[in-house]
């Protein structure tokens, strides 16, 4: 009364009143009050839930996977009400009301969740089965207890992809599959699976059976290494990672291919040490021992050939920029026999050993043969001379001169024979 303004020409400002702490907390509700700078102060209060960014759990899974979004509860209280929502939609996709005996899941407005949702009746966690890319989005859970003033709010940012990392290896290669973690925390869960066989490691670093004793787990990162890989170990590998801040599923498809791991070449010829397949982010090192011969980083378009310390490969190395193969020209018998290939990416590392045997060229072999023949001929000539001189001596002994004395030349012949024999 007494206020003549009817055009509502006032601007709104917001006053925030919050609990004693200055920083937003996970369970905190903030009360907003709107007040007019001019005219009567019409007041209206409403509550906004504040969810710190750190409390949004990232979930990255593969098409066809099942995933469980955890409430963090070990048991639902009798007066608890839980509602699960998808992408800020008003209608829940799942809800629990213990008091009313409600444990329901819904198909969603467009039916995308039909036959895919389950509720854990003990914890209230939401299970999504056989996921598709259309199930990507924000999932939120409100956990309310009527006896409490606070609402527990859980948020999951879910991404569904069909990404499968392909890895081509040779039988006998060593390959490491990365989890992407830098360090495992004590409460992190990491599970490696192979095909339909279930877990590879029921206990930490303890393979399922003897066929997998050539595998190791990195206790710092959870990476899986397969040494001297065998044919029966080709197929699909999957790692499921569950940490405080994320759920991550990764899939790798290992193909074992037939290729030459040992090469024979004649001296002076050119030999190519091949790579079967490389990805855009691969880092490739060609080495012998600890010495790097060549380096390729496809993403950075870097192709580098090293001049080794003893200069033995100077002007004799080339790189195939398309395949990453190493080409050695004018091969020599003094070249190394063992070469090592290391292919690294964000997802995997492959280690390979290639044996190169450099034999003599046809010309060199012909020269050796001629030399051997000439040597043999010389031995024959010496033998003939020796035989003739020996025969001559025997004849002289058997036919003495008429006066009964020996031919004065006998002594000379005996000396020559000794010299030749020696």
TrEMBL record:
<feature type="domain" description="Immunoglobulin">
    <location>
        <begin position="164"/>
        <end position="257"/>
    </location>
</feature>
<feature type="domain" description="Immunoglobulin">
    <location>
        <begin position="56"/>
        <end position="161"/>
    </location>
</feature>
<feature type="transmembrane region" description="Helical">
    <location>
        <begin position="364"/>
        <end position="387"/>
    </location>
</feature>
<feature type="domain" description="Immunoglobulin">
    <location>
        <begin position="260"/>
        <end position="359"/>
    </location>
</feature>
<dbReference type="InterPro" id="IPR013783">
    <property type="entry name" value="Ig-like_fold"/>
</dbReference>
<keyword id="KW-0812">Transmembrane</keyword>
<keyword id="KW-0472">Membrane</keyword>
<dbReference type="InterPro" id="IPR036179">
    <property type="entry name" value="Ig-like_dom_sf"/>
</dbReference>
<keyword id="KW-1133">Transmembrane helix</keyword>
<feature type="region of interest" description="Disordered">
    <location>
        <begin position="394"/>
        <end position="422"/>
    </location>
</feature>
<dbReference type="InterPro" id="IPR003599">
    <property type="entry name" value="Ig_sub"/>
</dbReference>
<protein>
    <recommendedName>
        <fullName>Immunoglobulin domain-containing protein</fullName>
    </recommendedName>
</protein>
């Amino acid at each position: 009364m007494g206020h003549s303004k009817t055009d509502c020409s006032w601007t709104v400002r917001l006053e925030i009143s919050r609990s004693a702490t200055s920083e937003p907390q996970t369970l905190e509700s903030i009360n907003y009050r709107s007040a007019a700078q001019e005219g009567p102060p019409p007041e209206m209060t409403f509550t906004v839930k504040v969810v710190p960014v750190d409390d949004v759990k990232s979930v990255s899974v593969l098409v066809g996977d099942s995933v469980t979004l955890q409430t963090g509860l070990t048991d639902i209280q009798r007066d608890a009400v839980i509602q699960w929502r998808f992408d800020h939609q008003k209608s829940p996709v799942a809800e629990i009301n213990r008091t009313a005996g409600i444990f329901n899941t819904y198909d969603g407005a467009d039916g995308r969740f039909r036959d895919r949702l389950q509720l854990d009746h003990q914890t209230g966690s939401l299970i999504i089965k056989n996921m598709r890319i259309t199930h990507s989005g924000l999932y939120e859970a409100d956990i309310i207890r009527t006896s409490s003033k606070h609402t527990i709010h859980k948020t999951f940012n879910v991404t569904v992809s069909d990404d499968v990392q392909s890895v081509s290896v040779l039988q006998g290669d060593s390959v490491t599959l990365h989890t992407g973690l830098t360090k495992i925390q004590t409460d992190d869960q990491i599970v490696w699976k192979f095909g339909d066989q279930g877990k590879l490691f029921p206990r930490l670093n303890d393979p399922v059976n003897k066929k997998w004793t050539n595998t190791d787990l990195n206790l710092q990162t959870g990476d899986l290494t397969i040494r001297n890989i065998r044919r029966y170990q080709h197929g699909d590998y999957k790692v499921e990672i569950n940490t405080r801040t994320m759920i991550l599923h990764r899939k790798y498809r290992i193909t074992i291919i037939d290729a030459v791991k040992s090469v024979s070449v004649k001296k002076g010829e050119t030999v190519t040490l091949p790579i079967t397949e490389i990805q855009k982010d691969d880092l490739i090192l060609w080495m012998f021992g600890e010495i790097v011969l060549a380096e390729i980083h496809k993403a950075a378009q870097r192709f580098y050939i090293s001049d080794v310390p003893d200069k033995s490969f100077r002007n004799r190395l080339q790189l195939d920029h398309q395949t990453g193969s190493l080409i050695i020209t004018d091969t020599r018998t003094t070249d190394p026999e063992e070469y090592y290939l290391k292919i690294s990416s964000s997802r995997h590392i492959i280690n390979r050993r290639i044996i190169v045997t450099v034999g003599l060229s046809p010309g060199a072999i012909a020269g050796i043969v001629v030399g051997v023949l000439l040597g043999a001929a010389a031995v024959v000539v010496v033998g003939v001379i020796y035989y003739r001189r020996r025969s001559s001596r025997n004849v002289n002994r058997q036919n003495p001169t008429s006066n009964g004395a020996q031919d004065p030349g006998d002594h000379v012949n005996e000396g020559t024979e000794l010299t030749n024999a020696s």
